[in-house]
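yo, Putative aliphatic sulfonates-binding protein is done. seq:
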Amino acid sequence: MKRYSRRTILAGLGMALSSPVWAARGAHAAQDTTIRIGYQQYGTLVVLRHSGLLERALAPAGIRVRWSEFIAGPQLLQALAADAIDIGETGNAPPVMAQAAWPDGLAYIGCSAPAPHGEGVLVPASSPIQAAADLKGRRIALNRGSNVHYLLLALLQRAGIAWTDIHPVYLPPAAGRAAFETGQVDAWAIWDPYLSAALMDTQARLLVDAQGVTTNRQFLIASRPFADRNPGNVFTLLAQARQDCVQWAADHADTLTTDIAASTGLSRPVITRALAQLALRPAPLDQAVVTEQQEIAATLFHARLIPGVPDIRAIVRGA
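structure:
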């Protein structure tokens, strides 16, 4: 079987990283005073950020929170490896790819319940494409190394289509939407809130979402050195804040929608739809979740997207 160099793996993830970066993270003092958290426009952390619950939970320990927004999971993991953040949230595929390249670099510290309607494949409303099988030979936009990379791979495999039978066009969300709207691609694999925005603001049709294909969980990932330190018992406080955030979001739905719409520049109806697809409630990092991730790892390996099948259980921490 063809072997993949580190350069190939990094290119596949969209990360210009190397293993010494992970080792450098141990240079922090034993007690941090600021926890650096990466979030995206989709996921549980964006809601937690707007709630302010984590700041209030950490304040008695003298710990502050600094938030940084990222466009997608691979870019967020790049920041994690570059020592720009301590904790972040991504979809299911990026941490598997990262672990394959850096077995001791990161740790799973939490996850969400399934949210299969939060990602999908879009086609123009007038497109003749009616099923996943019709994607053969088509140009499909997607963010390389993201959760939809795995979604598309799994959809094609179920339809009996090889990856080499499509023409992937690797674009971040904004460029992907532009290519989709101007007809430069035939389909677009994308997640919320970009998915909801395209459905509500463009002539797009949902070909298929992740229902029955993958759970589309969100995972909290920490750098391994930070996970080893866990200053101020941050993970326990984070887990409680995430749990409390479920009720907070229900009680402040209108304010939350307004605030996220203002911060993203998306309309309230788009945010309302996206939030409705989001599984805000935390889920246990149990054997069922590990098995899901292990199956994703095997699929990515057989598709030659990673050089080996990492042991997911080896880097799972409680949260």
